[in-house]
Design a protein that fits this description.
This protein has 126 residues and is mostly helical. The protein is 76% helix and 0% strand. Helix 2 runs antiparallel to helix 3 and helix 3 runs antiparallel to helix 4. The relative contact order is 0.15.
C-alpha cells in the first residue's frame, strides 16, 4: 500500500460536514446517536421496533453530511414517521414513559425543518 496515495487519495464520504449550519450538524449527530442507541437497545433487550427506521435514518444522515438532497428529504420523512409512531404509542396506552422518546423525536424533526437547514439544503444540496 502506498502511504502517500492513502493520505491524499479521494475520501469516499464524510460522516460530518463542519461547513454545514449547526442545525444540520446537530440533526446528523442526533441521527447517528439514535441509531447507535437503537442498536444497543436491540442487542440488550431483543426488541427491534424502530431499528430499521434508525438504520435508514443514519444512512440518510451520512447522505446529508455529503450534501445529498434525496437524503435530506428521506431524513425528514423517517424522522416524521418516528415522531408519529411515538405519538401513537403514547396515545394508545404507552403512558408517559415515552415522553423522552417524544422529546428526542421532536428535536430531530425541528433540527431538520429549521429554516437555516432548509435554506442550506435548498442552496447547496445536489
Amino acid at each position: 500500500m502506498d502511504w502517500q496515495n492513502w493520505q491524499n487519495g479521494p475520501v469516499p464520504g464524510k460522516w460530518i460536514d463542519q461547513s454545514q449550519p449547526q442545525t444540520l450538524q446537530g440533526a446528523v449527530l442526533f441521527s447517528y446517536l439514535n441509531a447507535a442507541l437503537a442498536l444497543i437497545f436491540t442487542i440488550a433487550l431483543g426488541e427491534s421496533a424502530f431499528l430499521l427506521v434508525f438504520v435508514l435514518l443514519a444512512a440518510a444522515a451520512f447522505g446529508i453530511a455529503n450534501d445529498k438532497r434525496l437524503a435530506y428529504w428521506a431524513a425528514i420523512v423517517l424522522a416524521g414517521f418516528y415522531l408519529l409512531a411515538v405519538l401513537v404509542t403514547m396515545v394508545t396506552g404507552g403512558g408517559l414513559g415515552g415522553i423522552l422518546n417524544l422529546l428526542f423525536a421532536g428535536i430531530l424533526v425541528a433540527l431538520l425543518l429549521h429554516p437555516e437547514s432548509r435554506q442550506y439544503a435548498r442552496t447547496w444540496f445536489k
